[in-house]
Amino acid sequence: MKPFNQYIAMICMACMTGVFTTSCQKEKAVQQDRPVSATSITPAKMGVLSGVLGTGKTVRDTIRLTAGTYQLQGIVYVDTLDIIQIDPGTVLKGIPSTKPQEPGGTLVITRGAKIFAQGTATNPIIFTSNSPTPAIGDIGGLVILGRAFTNRGDKLIEGIATPTPASTWYGGTNGQDNSGILKYVRIEYAGFILSTDNELNGLSLGGVGSGTTIDYVEVYKPLDDGIEFFGGTVNANHLVVVNPSDDGLDFDEGYRGRIQFALIVEDSTSANRSISHGIESDNNFYNDLVPVTHPQIANLTIIGLPNRAAATRNNYPPSLTGRYGVAAQWRRNSQFEVYNAVVLGFENGWLLDNTIPAGASTAKVQEYYRDGISIIKNSLVHAYNAPFHSVNPLYPYTSIKPYPHIPDSNKVYPNALDPNAGIRLVNPFNRNIANFFLPGRGIGFPPTPPSPALSGGYIPGLPAGFIQTPFRGAFSGDPVNNWTNGWTIFNY
Fold first, then answer.
1. How far apart are CA 189 and CA 182, in angstroms?
2. What is the 8-class DSSP label of residue 276?
3. Which domain of life is it from (predicted)?
4. In this structure, are residues 231 and 206 in contact, taking their beta carbons and an 8 Å threshold?
């Protein structure tokens, strides 16, 4: 455990008072000159991790957690320029907190530090609760802070009370910043509400750069969002979010990265007080903040609720004040590019939520949502009410449904009399069925037609960096090629 260093505190104060660039460049130069050490930790040697890991701020540490089970007590930090390496099969169990201003066991990778957590499909790395009866919010989850761009400058990450023994700032000017590797990692029962709109998520990514690898990551039963991208340029593939209390994926502060192959499965038993959406994305109305939030997403599947009564229910369960929202809410001038998506089980599907408050620019709203800036192509969007919906009078999808009720692979697939059956996933609302989220291949008696998701993918034409797929949604429909096999969970 590292003692708090007063010199570093003075540097951070200097950063806050307007000399961030000069001071932090000097700090980084000093850090680079530190001697390097390597520490191997076993569960028997240090079963409970707490505070700031490593030997001290005068040493650049590489800390290896060998395979086994560890406990996280409070917020555990990997300090600037230090590295934590986590072996496949390692389980990190967060101890639930008894303090209202502190989350349960949480791991924070500070700006300039790195995490190398590389599990395998048969031996994933798991962050979970230490409680014998785990519940959402038991742990604070995983926080990674980087030096990539945001449109809010340098910020303190949400959900962590100050002061802290290590820096919780994120943001910078290095779009290619590298915070390490997450691969075959599962995060369960995470999230923490410090105050209203001041929360930790299952995976919180602050200013994480494109040099970072995020691939095969599941967030299961998070208290807030599954994964929130606070700016940054990191790309992420093979994501699974199951039963988020709030949103599945959340983008803001100018996030501009690529996401391919993502599955979001809504919680059918509970909704959030701030309205639970599959996706929520924000930029800003009043200032031309750049970079503008503009994720590029391909091969996305979002599964909502099994019937309209559930999708429109408020106060569900009665002890909560939450309600369900839409499949994807794009608001406050956020932009998007979405290709080859499958969306079903919501009252309304794609929501352009640019309600224009007093003082905001109507012209700017129109500019951000004009054709070619925000794009959705070759996607199957079904809803109980309107596949497309808008509260912006420039786009009155509430009263005008823009696509006819006939199949057309070059447009968003039409709403059908039975919107869930129209897409024909295997059995999207029954998690006891193997491969419930795959597109059906026409198996059954009486015979059923194959899912329209098996074809119609936008190829060629996907932006650079994406894999071209002939199918729509996150899966090809072949159970052998189901990339969630072995390392994910959907019920327990």
1. 18
2. B
3. Bacteria
4. yes
Alpha carbon distance 304, 324 (integer Å): 9
pTM, two decimal places: 0.88
The tens digit of pLDDT for each residue in 43-90 reads: 888 899 999 998 877 788 999 999 999 999 999 999 999 999 999 999
Three-class SS state of 449: coil
Residue 262 lies in a domain: yes
Residue appearing with tokens 């300090």: 79
Closest residue by Cα to residue 277 from 341, 225, 229, 205:
225
CB 37 within 8 A of CB 55: yes
**Secondary structure element (H or E) that encloses residue 199, with its range:** strand 198-200
The structure tokens listed for 345 are 């089980």
Taking the mean position of all CA atoms in its chain, how far away is CA 448? 35
Q: Which amino acid does the sequence have at 269?
A: T
Assigned domain for 324 exists:
yes
What does the alpha-carbon distance between residue 121 and residue 206 come to, in Å, rounded to a whole number? 27
Position 194 in a domain: yes
Of 183, 282, 266, 274, nearest to 226 by C-alpha is 266
Q: Is residue 18 part of a domain?
A: no
Give the domain extent around 155.
26-481
Output the CA–CA distances (angstroms, integers) from residue 308 to 325, 345, 400, 430, 447, in the order listed: 12, 8, 20, 16, 27
* Strand segments (E) across 221-295: 227-230, 235-242, 249-252, 258-265, 279-282
* Preceding amide of 318 cis, omega within 30: no
CA-only gyration radius of the chain, Å: 22
Q: What is the mean pLDDT of the chain?
A: 84
**8 in helix, strand or coil?**
helix
Total structural domains within the chain: 1
CA gap 361, 349 in Å, rounded: 25
> What pLDDT is recorded for position 422?
79
Compute CA distances 482 → 67, 436, 466, 473, 486, whole Å: 26, 11, 18, 12, 10
What is the mean predicted confidence (pLDDT) over 206-219? 98
The interaxial angle of helices 6-14 and 20-32, nearest 10 deg, is 150
Q: Are 233 and 465 in contact (CB under 8 A)?
A: no
CA separation for the pair 71, 52 (Å, rounded): 14
